[in-house]
Design goal:
Blueprint lengths: L1 H28 L4 H21 L26 H11 L5 H13 L13 H36 L4 H15 L2 H12 L23 H39 L2 H8 L4 H19 L1 H9 L4 H6 L5 H10 L3 H29 L5 H5 L1
Amino acid sequence: MLGYILRRLALMVPTIFGIMLITFAIIQFAPGGPVERVLAQLQGQQEGSLNRVTGGQGDLGGVSRSGSENAKYRGAQGLDPAFIKKLEAQFGFDKPAPERFAKMLWDYARFDFGRSYFRDVSVLQLIKEKLPVSISLGLWMTLISYAISIPLGIRKAVSDGSRFDVWTSAVVIIGYAIPSFLFGILLIILFAGGSFVQIFPIRGLTSENFESLSLWGKAVDYAWHLALPLAALVLGAFATSTLLTKNSFLDEIRKQYVLTARMKGLTQRGVLYGHVFRNAMLIVIAGFPGAFITAFFTGSLLIETIFSLDGLGLLSFTSIVGRDYPVVFATLYIFSLLGLAVNLVSDLIYTWIDPRIDFSAKAA
């Protein structure tokens, strides 16, 4: 097993390299980089000043509108080419793309992510500031959804076709069909002062007086702020994992070894948790890494926006829109590492639940 783990860790290196290389190559051809963004802002300010002076009649004769030095940037007309070169050097675009990519990989290998282009703070510090929100949403959503869906899915599988199975299936399907952001908006309307009552807050992870509260008060305040966002996130996640659990257990219950165990006189509970559970839970565990990463990053983007929670999902989105490349690449690098690590942990849990699975033998 140790050899298998080492091989998986070694494979993470080319995987991360490929992800970063493809993303870096795409970024090179994407229009509207950070230099163009700054130039467009400066040009907009310049044009606004000219319009105020000329009364909206156009250029002043003293401002040049062309130049081969800066023709590659839209919005660079009339600006000093030396200033543009200085701006390129500030963002690191004065070096060839391969050299910039090699430097980025060397820095990221040492977890040196540099500084944000448009925020006066290091990228690592920026990520640390946003991390509590994303951890809170991702971790609690995953734990709550699995705590609900696994027992419910087992109960539905055991009572397949019963009245309980039918009406819970209706609830699960409705929950799956409702987008989490739409349900979040409904919760705000009903419980956060939208149109009815105002019970829950809709901004931040904690209250302003959080530090002055007692330990119990802090726990209550933390749960109070997370109640609505988690309810919106859990709805779709719990529906998916419930149906997955039910179908997995149904498939195992109908197999021959279950019938043999019952004929030997084992109780329903003994058969279910002594034989079926171990096999049926494998497919549920297989979906855990994807569920966790989705909840931790992409799945919480709209929820963070709706409930004004400043987490990594919102940070990544705004950084992509604002062309803040150090933040974009750093978050991509961290989430790629996280995803690969969680997949490895998932495989190790496989072997813990079912010792018959031996990944090291298959790899050999």
